[in-house]
Design goal:
α2 crosses α7 and α2 crosses α8. The protein is globular. It is α+β, with helices and mostly antiparallel strands.
Length: about 500
């Protein structure tokens, strides 16, 4: 018996309009970040708080265009390369929607390799990941319920977890702090966005802090992650002690405290939690082992299948919350349609980049080159990616209504002016925004806006200490000025057109 169900109760949305336009892209961009000239002709005057919004130095580039005709309305440093940060999630979503389809669902399966006799599975039980980036505790409980409904009460063989559909990587970007919860492991089998909560209870406990996985279903121990108490005074309250092993200092006040950390082995984490949930349901499973039974998935019968939300809905949440894991997993799944042998994020992102730059752009007046465009991964995390405003505008245009309709706005809790729907990107000394806006006249316009201080960003990267998680105060002040400048540019566009 096979139980199959979706993780949502709503039917898939109707198919969007054409995913890609009709006009062919040209060629493969480069250029160094240039000095700032403010929109409207104002010069970037170092030290002038009125002119610079508190920014001491930096660069601004933008491309404002009519999304229907592609005609450029305003541009500045449009062929200058910037770090796109999370704006790079736009081409990831555009490619995935076209290659996989907006109704695509990722399936997580329970497979059995032997006969089921009298409630005993006389073979192995396999938890097979299908790339669902939003798989949570609730989904594992649904699979467990379906396993019981199929009549399984005992497993005679091994308990395997199968992550072979996608490469499993311990982190997204090696240039991030070790404890950055947004720099998670990536793979075909995820759990609660691959984050763990290291938690001190009030007054501490003799055993030290707990490692928990958190979902709507509650907080549960995460047996694949360990954490030990660390003496105070070392200067860093949280340090790695191996893969998914942490040292954590207790809160100095004796109050409760906690910190989110990334999970580097998401497949093992999901399998360990499933084993714990199964034990609570009276089904004892052996310790999980990575692998597949002889013959792979074809060698086992499906006992339960859990389908994800449709890709369009996953992508809507990805763009709204800027979840890096979702972008990487969805991007990896899309690139496998082009070449299943890609095993790194760089290789996978390169496949999508080459495919996108050979697709139609619609009516965009393309007068640039793709030289220098580089998507280092699918999420934009890190400083390895580069794109010019004109290039990103072409990629936004290529996504078409299928992408545009998913862009978040003020109604989604984003700090954007009314009528602006866009994807933001933020790193220290990097600020980006790209999407559509509705001007005061009612006219809809497309735009890409990048603000950066490349010298300060490069100095920060050169001094990287992966033990440090806090953003420097100077970078926070710079970001505040960049937000003000971004808002002024958007407001001028809205009022002018």
């Amino acid at each position: 018996m096979t139980a199959s169900f979706h993780s949502d109760s709503n039917p898939p949305p109707p198919s969007p309009r054409s995913l890609l336009g009709r006009r062919p892209f040209l060629g493969l961009f480069g250029g160094a970040l240039g000095a700032l000239a403010l929109p409207g002709g104002g010069a970037w005057a170092a030290g002038s708080s009125r002119t610079t919004n508190g920014l001491e130095s930096g660069s601004v580039g933008y491309f404002l265009f009519d999304p229907d005709s592609g005609r450029a309305l305003e541009e500045q440093a449009a062929d200058t390369a910037f770090i796109p940060a999370s704006v790079a999630k736009l081409p990831t979503v555009a490619a995935a929607l076209a290659l996989l389809g907006p109704d695509h669902r990722f399936a997580t399966r329970l497979l059995g390799t032997g006969p089921l006799e009298g409630g005993v599975l006389r073979g192995d039980l396999i938890l097979q990941g299908g790339g669902d980036p939003a798989l949570a505790t609730e989904g594992l409980l649904q699979l467990l319920g379906a396993l019981g409904a199929a009549g399984v009460r005992q497993v005679e063989g091994r308990f395997l977890y199968d992550t072979a559909l996608l490469p499993e990587l311990a982190e997204i970007d090696s240039g991030q702090p070790w404890a950055a919860p947004y720099n998670t492991g990536v793979g075909a089998l995820s759990l609660n966005y691959n984050r763990a909560l290291l938690n001190w209870r009030r007054g501490g406990t003799p055993a030290g802090p707990d490692a928990l996985t958190v979902a709507d279903a509650g907080r549960l121990p995460l047996d694949s992650v360990t954490v030990r108490p660390m003496a105070m005074g070392g200067g860093f309250p949280l340090l790695p002690d191996g893969v998914d092993r942490w040292l954590m200092a207790p809160p100095s006040s004796g109050e409760a405290g906690g910190a989110w950390v990334p999970v580097a082995r998401p497949g093992l984490a999901a399998a360990m939690l499933f084993r714990r949930l199964a034990a609570d349901a009276g089904i004892a499973l052996p310790a999980p082992v990575v692998g597949r039974a002889a013959g792979g998935a074809a060698g086992g019968a499906a006992l339960a299948v859990l389908d994800s939300l449709p890709l369009a809905e996953l992508a809507r949440g990805l763009l709204r919350h800027s979840n890096n894991l979702s972008a990487e997993v969805i991007g990896l799944a899309a690139s496998r349609r082009l070449d299943p042998s890609a095993t790194t994020l760089d290789r996978s992102a390169g496949l999508l980049q080459r495919w996108l730059t050979r697709q139609p752009v619609g009516a965009v007046n393309w007068s640039g080159s793709w030289n220098g465009l580089r998507l280092a991964n699918h999420s934009g995390l890190g400083t390895g990616s580069r794109a010019t405003p004109r290039q990103m505008a072409a990629l936004l245009q290529a996504g078409g209504p299928a992408l545009w309709d998913l862009l978040p706005g003020e109604e989604d809790g984003k700090a954007l002016p009314p009528g602006v729907h866009a994807k933001s990107g933020t790193l220290a000394y990097v600020k980006g925004l790209s999407g559509l806006l509705t001007a005061a006249s009612g006219r809809r316009l497309g735009f890409v806006l990048f603000i950066a201080d490349p010298a300060r960003r490069a100095a920060m990267d050169a001094a990287l200490d992966r033990r440090v998680t806090a953003t420097p105060a100077e970078a926070r002040a710079w970001a505040a000025g960049a937000r003000r400048l971004q808002g002024e540019i958007l407001e001028r566009w809205v009022s002018t057109y």
